Amino acid sequence: RKVYFDTHALVCLLEEKGFTTQQSEVIVSALVKIMDTNLDMIYKDMVTKVQQEIALQQVMSHIAGVKKDMIILEKSEFSALRSENEKIKLELQQIKKQVMDEITKVRADNKLNLNLEKSRVKELHAQQDRALTQTDRKIDTEVADLKTMLETHKLDNIKYLAGSVFTCLTVALGFYRLW
Q: Burial code of 62-90, b = ≥16 C-beta within 10 A, e = fewer?
Protein backbone atom coordinates (compact mmCIF):
# COMPACT_ATOMS: atom_id res chain seq x y z
CA ARG A 1 0.00 0.00 0.00
CA LYS A 2 3.00 2.29 0.05
CA VAL A 3 3.98 4.48 -2.83
CA TYR A 4 7.66 4.32 -3.52
CA PHE A 5 9.36 7.24 -5.22
CA ASP A 6 12.53 9.20 -4.61
CA THR A 7 11.51 12.07 -2.33
CA HIS A 8 15.10 13.37 -2.06
CA ALA A 9 15.33 13.67 -5.86
CA LEU A 10 12.09 15.67 -5.82
CA VAL A 11 13.43 17.95 -3.05
CA CYS A 12 16.59 18.52 -5.12
CA LEU A 13 14.54 19.27 -8.21
CA LEU A 14 12.44 21.80 -6.33
CA GLU A 15 15.56 23.45 -4.94
CA GLU A 16 16.99 23.75 -8.43
CA LYS A 17 13.81 25.54 -9.50
CA GLY A 18 14.15 28.13 -6.81
CA PHE A 19 12.48 26.69 -3.72
CA THR A 20 14.31 26.64 -0.41
CA THR A 21 15.16 23.33 1.21
CA GLN A 22 12.53 23.80 3.87
CA GLN A 23 9.86 24.72 1.27
CA SER A 24 10.83 21.76 -0.89
CA GLU A 25 10.60 19.34 2.06
CA VAL A 26 7.19 20.77 3.10
CA ILE A 27 5.90 20.40 -0.49
CA VAL A 28 7.22 16.84 -0.76
CA SER A 29 5.82 15.99 2.69
CA ALA A 30 2.41 17.42 1.65
CA LEU A 31 2.54 15.46 -1.61
CA VAL A 32 3.32 12.25 0.30
CA LYS A 33 0.41 12.87 2.71
CA ILE A 34 -1.96 13.62 -0.20
CA MET A 35 -0.86 10.50 -2.03
CA ASP A 36 -1.24 8.38 1.11
CA THR A 37 -4.74 9.78 1.69
CA ASN A 38 -5.67 9.15 -1.94
CA LEU A 39 -4.29 5.63 -1.78
CA ASP A 40 -6.23 4.98 1.43
CA MET A 41 -9.41 6.17 -0.32
CA ILE A 42 -8.65 4.02 -3.35
CA TYR A 43 -7.85 0.96 -1.23
CA LYS A 44 -11.08 1.38 0.71
CA ASP A 45 -13.03 0.79 -2.51
CA MET A 46 -10.75 -2.01 -3.70
CA VAL A 47 -10.94 -5.66 -2.72
CA THR A 48 -8.17 -8.12 -2.32
CA LYS A 49 -7.74 -11.07 -4.62
CA VAL A 50 -8.90 -13.42 -1.87
CA GLN A 51 -12.03 -11.33 -1.29
CA GLN A 52 -12.62 -11.28 -5.02
CA GLU A 53 -12.31 -15.07 -5.25
CA ILE A 54 -14.74 -15.50 -2.33
CA ALA A 55 -17.24 -13.14 -3.94
CA LEU A 56 -16.82 -14.95 -7.29
CA GLN A 57 -17.45 -18.32 -5.61
CA GLN A 58 -20.56 -16.93 -3.89
CA VAL A 59 -21.87 -15.56 -7.19
CA MET A 60 -21.12 -18.85 -8.98
CA SER A 61 -22.92 -20.87 -6.27
CA HIS A 62 -25.87 -18.47 -6.47
CA ILE A 63 -25.94 -18.87 -10.28
CA ALA A 64 -25.80 -22.66 -9.91
CA GLY A 65 -28.76 -22.51 -7.49
CA VAL A 66 -30.71 -20.34 -9.89
CA LYS A 67 -29.89 -22.78 -12.73
CA LYS A 68 -31.20 -25.68 -10.65
CA ASP A 69 -34.36 -23.73 -9.83
CA MET A 70 -34.80 -22.87 -13.52
CA ILE A 71 -34.37 -26.51 -14.57
CA ILE A 72 -36.87 -27.65 -11.94
CA LEU A 73 -39.27 -24.90 -12.98
CA GLU A 74 -38.79 -25.72 -16.65
CA LYS A 75 -39.45 -29.41 -16.03
CA SER A 76 -42.55 -28.69 -13.97
CA GLU A 77 -43.76 -26.16 -16.56
CA PHE A 78 -43.06 -28.67 -19.32
CA SER A 79 -44.94 -31.42 -17.52
CA ALA A 80 -47.81 -29.02 -16.81
CA LEU A 81 -47.88 -28.03 -20.48
CA ARG A 82 -47.76 -31.67 -21.50
CA SER A 83 -50.69 -32.56 -19.23
CA GLU A 84 -52.61 -29.52 -20.45
CA ASN A 85 -51.87 -30.58 -24.02
CA GLU A 86 -53.19 -34.08 -23.28
CA LYS A 87 -56.37 -32.60 -21.77
CA ILE A 88 -56.86 -30.45 -24.86
CA LYS A 89 -56.29 -33.48 -27.11
CA LEU A 90 -58.93 -35.46 -25.20
CA GLU A 91 -61.39 -32.56 -25.37
CA LEU A 92 -60.67 -32.19 -29.09
CA GLN A 93 -61.33 -35.89 -29.67
CA GLN A 94 -64.61 -35.65 -27.73
CA ILE A 95 -65.66 -32.60 -29.71
CA LYS A 96 -64.68 -34.36 -32.94
CA LYS A 97 -66.78 -37.37 -31.94
CA GLN A 98 -69.74 -35.13 -31.07
CA VAL A 99 -69.41 -33.31 -34.40
CA MET A 100 -69.28 -36.62 -36.28
CA ASP A 101 -72.37 -37.84 -34.37
CA GLU A 102 -74.18 -34.62 -35.21
CA ILE A 103 -73.17 -34.91 -38.87
CA THR A 104 -74.45 -38.50 -38.91
CA LYS A 105 -77.73 -37.39 -37.31
CA VAL A 106 -78.13 -34.54 -39.79
CA ARG A 107 -77.40 -36.87 -42.72
CA ALA A 108 -79.89 -39.43 -41.45
CA ASP A 109 -82.52 -36.72 -40.91
CA ASN A 110 -81.86 -35.32 -44.38
CA LYS A 111 -82.14 -38.79 -45.95
CA LEU A 112 -85.36 -39.43 -44.06
CA ASN A 113 -86.78 -36.05 -45.07
CA LEU A 114 -85.69 -36.62 -48.66
CA ASN A 115 -87.30 -40.07 -48.74
CA LEU A 116 -90.49 -38.65 -47.18
CA GLU A 117 -90.54 -35.89 -49.78
CA LYS A 118 -89.98 -38.43 -52.55
CA SER A 119 -92.84 -40.58 -51.29
CA ARG A 120 -95.08 -37.48 -50.98
CA VAL A 121 -94.18 -36.46 -54.53
CA LYS A 122 -94.88 -40.01 -55.78
CA GLU A 123 -98.19 -40.05 -53.92
CA LEU A 124 -99.06 -36.65 -55.38
CA HIS A 125 -98.16 -37.86 -58.88
CA ALA A 126 -100.25 -40.99 -58.31
CA GLN A 127 -103.19 -38.85 -57.16
CA GLN A 128 -102.76 -36.59 -60.16
CA ASP A 129 -102.58 -39.62 -62.47
CA ARG A 130 -105.76 -41.07 -60.90
CA ALA A 131 -107.53 -37.72 -61.20
CA LEU A 132 -106.35 -37.40 -64.80
CA THR A 133 -107.50 -40.93 -65.57
CA GLN A 134 -110.91 -40.25 -64.00
CA THR A 135 -111.16 -37.01 -65.93
CA ASP A 136 -110.23 -38.84 -69.16
CA ARG A 137 -112.91 -41.47 -68.43
CA LYS A 138 -115.52 -38.78 -67.73
CA ILE A 139 -114.57 -37.01 -70.94
CA ASP A 140 -114.71 -40.29 -72.91
CA THR A 141 -118.08 -41.11 -71.32
CA GLU A 142 -119.44 -37.65 -72.12
CA VAL A 143 -118.12 -37.86 -75.68
CA ALA A 144 -119.70 -41.30 -76.10
CA ASP A 145 -123.00 -40.00 -74.65
CA LEU A 146 -122.87 -37.02 -77.00
CA LYS A 147 -122.16 -39.31 -79.99
CA THR A 148 -125.06 -41.53 -78.99
CA MET A 149 -127.31 -38.55 -78.59
CA LEU A 150 -126.14 -37.16 -81.91
CA GLU A 151 -126.87 -40.48 -83.61
CA THR A 152 -130.32 -40.66 -82.04
CA HIS A 153 -131.07 -37.09 -83.12
CA LYS A 154 -129.74 -37.88 -86.54
CA LEU A 155 -131.99 -40.92 -86.80
CA ASP A 156 -134.92 -38.93 -85.49
CA ASN A 157 -134.23 -36.21 -88.06
CA ILE A 158 -133.98 -38.80 -90.80
CA LYS A 159 -137.26 -40.31 -89.61
CA TYR A 160 -138.98 -36.94 -89.56
CA LEU A 161 -137.45 -36.04 -92.91
CA ALA A 162 -138.49 -39.33 -94.42
CA GLY A 163 -141.95 -38.91 -92.89
CA SER A 164 -142.13 -35.35 -94.18
CA VAL A 165 -140.98 -36.42 -97.65
CA PHE A 166 -143.52 -39.29 -97.74
CA THR A 167 -146.21 -36.95 -96.44
CA CYS A 168 -145.37 -34.43 -99.11
CA LEU A 169 -145.36 -37.14 -101.75
CA THR A 170 -148.65 -38.46 -100.53
CA VAL A 171 -150.14 -34.98 -100.60
CA ALA A 172 -148.59 -34.37 -104.01
CA LEU A 173 -149.94 -37.66 -105.34
CA GLY A 174 -153.30 -36.86 -103.81
CA PHE A 175 -153.35 -33.59 -105.72
CA TYR A 176 -152.18 -35.26 -108.84
CA ARG A 177 -154.93 -37.72 -108.64
CA LEU A 178 -157.40 -35.11 -108.03
CA TRP A 179 -156.50 -33.28 -111.07
A: eeeeeeeeeeeeeeeeeeeeeeeeeeeee
Contact 11, 25 (CB under 8 A): yes
Torsion of CA 96, 102, 105, 109, to 10 degrees: -140
d(CA 40, CA 121): 112
- Whether the full predicted model's pTM is greater than 0.70, yes or no, is no
Per-residue pLDDT of the chain (179 residues; tens, 9 = 90+): 566 778 899 899 999 999 999 999 999 999 989 988 888 888 787 777 888 899 899 999 999 999 988 888 888 887 888 888 999 999 999 999 999 999 999 999 999 999 999 999 999 999 999 999 999 999 999 999 999 999 999 999 999 999 999 999 999 988 888 87
